[in-house]
Amino acid sequence: MRIVHVCAGWEENNGAARIARLLMDEQTAQGHETVARIWASPGELKHTDEVWIHCAWKPCLWWAAWWGRRVVWVPEASYDPVRLGFHGWKKRLAGPFERWALRRADRVLATCEAEKNWILRYEPRVKQVEVTDIKRFFRLDANKGLKGPKGQERRGALRALYMGRAHPLKGLEYLERAVAESGDRVELKVASRVFGEEKERIWDWCQVLVLPTLSDNFGLVVAEALERGKRVIVTDGAPAWGDGDTYGGRLKYVKGFLAASDSGRTELLREALAQENA
Fold first, then answer.
1. At the N or C end, where does the chain have fewer CB atoms within 10 A?
2. pTM (2 decimals)?
3. Does domain 2-136 have CATH number 3.90.1210.10?
4. Where in the chain is the domain with CATH 3.40.50.2000?
């Protein structure tokens, strides 16, 4: 089977593109032919077996939905109510195109139950919504040895890492305030565009990853940290990690973060960091 994957950008730090590549690798291993596109010709879209569309809100994706013979849509948190409110007027204008494209899809894939509910709330008339487990692509062994303050002797400040874009929905400002209120007990490193050996050096430095997000359906960086045996603090803005699994005590899921005030969010993160320091 030939599968065309359409994404608005294929940069290495693009979360939607990274999930697309994981799915493509799996499909290739199963014997399918996969290709990556931003814009594809009508002929290619009409005559390929399946067209997989990643993320949302882009004309190149609506184009693919129009011409694709069999369409699978992977929105990747695009319909999270928090995200819908960000630049909401633009999304209301584009809403008719977006809802039509969702209805056009033969299947829509969510990465957790919460995202499935977001999709159905945004467009109840979709044909079929399935939950696909992105965690299957990572070695998340609950018994893996801890590499962090509670898994080894540590001196000095807790080394906390934020890895990702400095985007308003990622909650970095609350983490920076929480670290400032922690004094010299916590050292924070922010890494937004790191790859290869530089990225691995930062992981080696890190003792705890913090993802203070307001809107993530999955949070790939959490899986990367757990794969490396790191400890993780993640908020309920990434509901895929709220299933109760602590991965051998390495993951702390901060509930109530989304509903809290600005000062409340800062305090929740400060408390979580203090627990890591205990």
1. C
2. 0.89
3. no
4. 2-136, 141-277
